[in-house]
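Field: COMPLEX_INPUT
Field: COMPONENT_COUNT = two
Field: RESIDUE_TOTAL = 733
Field: MODE = joint
Values follow.
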Amino acid sequence: MLTAVGEWQQGLAEAISARFGVALPPEQIPFTFPPKPEMGDASTPVAFSLAKALRRPPAAIAAELAAVSLAGVRESRAAGGYLNLYLDRGRAIGDLLAGRFTPAAVPGKVIVEHTNINPNKAAHVGHLRNAVLGDSLVKCLRYLGRTVEVQNYIDDTGVQVADVVVGFERIKGFSLGEVKALMAALSAFDPPKSGPFSEVRLGAWAARCPALLAEHPAWRGVERELERCCGRFDSFCWELYAQVGPWYAQSDEHKAARLETLHLMEAGGNETAAMAALVAEEMVRRHLGTMERLGIRYDVLPHESDILKIGFWRSCFDKLKAAGAVHLVPAESEDKNRGCWVMALAESDEFKGMSDADKVIVRSNGTVTYIGKDMAYQLWKFGLLGRDFHYRPFDTPLYEVWRTDAGTAQIPDGVILASEARPESLPKRDAGQAGMTGKSDHEASPSFGGGEAVINVIDVRQSYLQKIVKEGLRQMGHEAQADRSIHFAYEMVALATKFVRAEMEKGVRFDLSEEDLAKPFVEMSGRKGLGFQADLLLDRIKDRALHEIEAREPDLAKADPAQWESRADMLATAALRYYMVRYNRNQVVAFDLEQALAFEGDTGPYLQYACVRAEAILRKAAEQGVAVPDPDHAATLEALAPAFDDEGWALLSLFMRVPVQVKAAVDGLDLNIVARQFYEAAQAFHAYYHHFPVLQEPEDLKRRARLLTVALFARLLRQGLTDLLGIPVPERM
RNA sequence: GCGCCCGUAGCUCAGCUGGAUAGAGCGUCGGCCUCCGGAGCCGAAGGUCGUGGGUUCGAAUCCCGCCGGGCGCACCA
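Field: COMPLEX_OUTPUT
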């Protein structure tokens, strides 16, 4: 079935063919939205493109096309070469509610990979940008009728995890048992459930610390980390990780610790490997918790350790060799890559002009690089590997999410599986939950991978590597899949030096030179502990929200603290998500706390407020016994639509643009246009609200038309914010 | 050196595949709550769209050069 716009394109194409003898494919007739409401509801500049071929002025062509009658169009007018359409308002609203502006569903599964945080420290604002962009993209794809599978890749075997393990074992002298005890102590911490973070949680934690230190003499070296972590394990590791770099720099012996640790992790069956698994698993749980605060969830968590154990790389390597995509550089050669398996990139257009066009895939010591593992993973995502993971539920009380499992394949004896290693104090999954019990897990486990298109949300600094993965697919003969491997590249989040200076004035220490501070922003670095933790940011925004709510409803905190909290959470989610999605993806976000904390103007809460205000009117109407017209009732629409104020109509007609904008957003991976669209709608509503009394309007027909306008606006905005931007809307704020 | 990205109002950013008079927010200044919630609204000031060419009926937008800034181009992920 054609969309409403599709019908206009069809109608115009036929008319153009009949009148001018020019065959124009309907989908090539462009539609835009006029800058002012009096210029109509939709518009096409098609006359401009016909002008040259027909050797007639655009205005004359548009004038002739204005005589063509189009479905659902009340009137067509030519204006300055444009053809402006004025719609039958009742019908247009009906079409919109019936989804006739949304493109038809597309078959095939899209796999979106995002978040991918190294499981060795707390998530920071940069990870938030990734997750928010990824999740918003997922929502937009689903809105357009796509089936989407969300994957969050866990690199649980890399040096980053090893570094934290080094921190625990070598720097702090922690045993596996002590790490377990620390995790247990932190997850047992039960701060008061409501009130500002800075007063309540921090206070309670500060009070708890001395007792913990007294109970655990082995923790004498971590007083500072413990105090600063606010009772969070990921935050503790954030502090710890920042100490590892300087420690390595102290001596060669220290440097060697990293490699030793990595070897122990690979070998398995020892305390170090168990600690790595334990730390990584708990970290993933923490990250899922952070993202859950923003309503971001995943379907499956592929683990790098499983990719290795189950032999994905070996299959991929066989395919690469069979296709001649990699070759071995002879060990006796003079080449700097001697002894390595490399992929030649020189012949590909993407890489021309490179001085060194070979990429090492397998090192001379026989180990595979990250890029190789990524290629195996990408093959699996497309169902091209011919092998699959086993799956089991990931151990978290938050929601049902699966993780990969190597099954019985090649797990060295004695390796403590992460699930067995979890501390007893963590909440256990409800055994009654479907698909969550014992043996039935495998039978009930859904299938993952085998997507028809793959979108990897990874920051722009990895573009080169993503290109190589794509090139690998191509060289293996998977041309079509290479074309459907999309790298959603976005610029990094850095710290605005303005913000850094403000923090330094408050006593926070950053290891930065004067030269760094002279720049507009500085890159974050987990290694240096230079960054801003995601949970802390959310806490700060929430605190602000709690205060703002309290200022408006002083009694709420006492009367209904749960409600108070829940509204503040929604405000924080809105502020943060909007902040992360409002920028163009090519724009470096120079993180500034002041901007992230803003609730006024071009912000998430402003959008929520528009919705809350509209719903307040409807609630008030109900209280006064005034009936709100039902938008789903066709006859009501027909009757009231002609009585819409022009401004009210202009407001509603903005929502007809949403499907077009979402399509454009997904095609161009420019999600900011979706955010902007709703911002404009909110702006239009706030203005409408001030200029058009609804309940006070004396004339019955007008009042009912305005109530209908408000009802439609509230529904469309709430739906849009929730479904596309993941911004929840409270009933009051 | 090669490649990608950014440069638009004091600051932070929009400006969609060239198209209607370059727009928002913050900040500044001035107004608006006996009236559906002031997290709001209305108004003012503020821009030679980094720069020089080119293509076009038409360029912030496309092409080329230059200037300034960021990021890539590992047997690290």
